[in-house]
Amino acid sequence: DTVLTQSPALAVSPGERVTISCRASESVSTLMHWYQQKPGQQPKLLIYKASNLASGVPARFSGSGSGTDFTFTIDPVEADDIATYYCHQSWNSPPTFGGGTKLELK
Amino acid sequence: EVQLQQSGAELVRPGTSVKLSCKVSGDTITAYYMHFVKQRPGQGLEWIGRIDPEDDSTKYAEKFKNKATLTADTSSNTAYLKLSSLTSEDTATYFCTTFHVGGYFDYWGQGVMVTVSS
User: Fold this and answer.
1) For residue B117, what pLDDT is reported?
2) CB contact (8 A) between residue B104 and residue A90
3) Which residues of chain A does B109 touch, with a Cβ-Cβ cutoff of 8 Å?
4) CA B75 to each of CA B24, B28, B55, B112: distance values in angstroms, whole numbers, following the listed order
């Protein structure tokens, strides 16, 4: 299975720029997607196919990458962005998720 | 707007089975591959498998092949996940989600918490 590796946690302040990385154990082309999950809620799609903003998602969120290295950026961070972010690849079967990056307030 | 409504929380005994439902509204279920995802308390997301309600074909993650069974009822626009031989390792929240042809999960159910305890 394709393993996706994310840093487990990042501390941020509102107004800052934050970048989350996701490294795949093998190429996933550009079929990497990003979700936000708040406690007690279902995941929410933010970015699809590496760099495309999902409908209704603010332009503060962005993504880039291809192959094995991907980044997800929030600029600027708002207090409401405190959540866990997951990357997900669908190029290889089975689909897999990263372990999640928890954003915390400094 | 497409919505996925999942059944309520379950408290079940070890060794038994449980069947969870996921009802699609706003579109026909046959328009989507329906996937299910597991999330243990405080942990990440884990793909269980998917069903194509059009022909009932299924695909499972290797570790769930003897644990999970996916079915669908097109007349009620509902997908089901049955979990068997339950242990404490099955205590988790289970989500259903629709798969977009672009390769991502676009709509999600609210999740259902399953607690396995004697």
Assistant:
1) 97
2) yes
3) 42
4) 11, 10, 13, 22
